Amino acid sequence: MQALTNRLKEVDRRKMNFLERLYLISIFKGMMITFSHIFKKKPTIDYPEKTRPFSPVFRGLHILNRDEAGRENCTACGLCAVACPAEAITMEAAERQANEENLYREEKYAAKYEINMLRCIFCGLCEEACPKDAIYLSETVPPADYQRKQFIYKKEELLIPHPIENFEAYKKALGNRVKKETDNFKI
Amino acid sequence: MADEIKKEAPVAFKVTIDNITIDVAPGTTILNAARQIGGDVTPPAMCYYSKLEGSGGKCRSCLVEVAAGSTADSRPMPKLMASCRTTVMDGMIVKNMTSEKVIDARNGVVEFLLINHPLDCPICDQAGECHLQDLGYKHGVESTRYEFKRRTFEKEDIGPFIQLHMTRCILCYRCTYIADQITDKRVHGILDRGDHAEISTYISKAIDNDFSGNMIDVCPVGALTDKTFRFKNRVWFTKPVDAHRNCENPKCCGKATLWLRGDEVYRVTSRKDEWGEVQSYNGQVGWICNTCRFEKKKTNDWTIEGLTTISRHSVIGANKYATLEMPIDTIKKVLHGRDPKLLMNIHNVSGVNNPNIHLSEIDRSSQMEDFVKSNDFIKGEGESTQWGLPKE
Predict the structure, then answer these.
(1) Measuring CA to CA, how many Å separate B209 from each of A14, A15, A21?
(2) What range does the domain containing B359 cover?
(3) Is residue A77 situated within a structural domain?
(4) What pLDDT digit, counting tens, does each position of A81-109 carry?
(5) B368 chain-A contacts, CB cut-off 8 A
(6) Does some domain include residue B366?
(7) What's the gap in Å between the CA of A87 and the closest CA on chain B?
(8) Assembly ipTM
(9) In what helix (H) or strand (E) does residue B7 lie, and over which residues does it extend?
């Protein structure tokens, strides 16, 4: 067989002598390698205290966007759900009532909106399909959990905080990528 | 229509459309001759409706180039002709998709049709089966050049069954023809002129005729939509099946398409043919009455025949399968007939598609109060414990 690297070593099949059978030298040799690694640069980081820089196209947990007045952008048009290759998105629509113009931007809104994060493959097709700028994949890494039911994200969990009532949380949810836009944002 | 004339006049006219020659009966329009050929040769029609007498000639989307008038007079026609209103002559040569002039003109027509259209497809219930959407997708441009305010209208309630969105209307007049031709009396029409022209009823009269629901089916856009289906689901998430029932109304054919979600009938429409028009049965147009359309929303009201054939390119066919082949359940065999324990039943957690909520039984649009029960989860077997392992 042709060797893939030049580091190929033949295994020594000779019978071991007494000193070798004690394994002390081998153990010491191995420990020296382990010990030498203490002085080498760490390849890991202390997550979550430190985080690695994100790729500008990183696709994390979804957020449902609001407009400047805090109205929900989503109109439950179903394009994200039909675009979703994993069939993770489900929704139910409702008609906006006369006194709800400050809550929802359009005549129709998502009464229920759910993303099954167990199914989601974070491809971002929902974001691309959205005609209303309503769904975005944020920079948040989806958290782990012990229970499956925690991965069914409801609309309340997906919706971005209100930009007027809770501006700090809203800005944080927007993430660093849109920082420039929010700096110009006036309350 | 063409078939009826054929019997009286056996002489056939030879007409060439996009280099395809066909013999048609005299008096056939270019559009109907093209429909006999079928496929891409057929010009689109937004206002013409073969089942409605006098329709056509309004939207101009069916414009074609007549390269030679006839064998007797082979001069081309100076302007593009509306193919739904121009009858064929012997030896006529028509260019539709092969003519650059036609494509250019059609792009212009679509731009004109979309000038005042609100483009609220994400909200519109017609989206997915809208002819203007298809036409705009094929011939439209990505953005508008129109800088002015789009026309708007005061909202008008035209009764409990039909929702009127005047902003979406393209003034094709189909709904007024249908009221004239298949209902006893017409209570709606076009008011005002030009930019102010609107479909309206006289002094907010409710449209309550037995066959008024067919207005919804003939409307090429989302101007007239079903109020009992309003916002309940998108068209492409519902499954269309052909069904029939014995309707008491002698004028109603009783053959319809049911749009199902699970076992619930969300919407009933008449069956459509390949041109998006209501199907005919033995020469009779298959209009359905309002009882069938709005009140029979249970599967046991109907005899289901089978899945409706949907065009391969339509979004309505997305994620639906004519035959569903389930894999053999090996777990049950291995466990000696016992059911595997579910780690999670989605209905225990999900607030969407709750089996306790029956949107089909609500005779208005879906509203927030209809979903109050949706957080009552279906508790039962297969509940997961903390470690995701089945309960003992």
Answers:
(1) 101, 103, 101
(2) 326-392
(3) yes
(4) 999 999 999 999 999 999 999 999 999 99
(5) 94, 97, 111
(6) yes
(7) 9
(8) 0.82
(9) helix B2-8
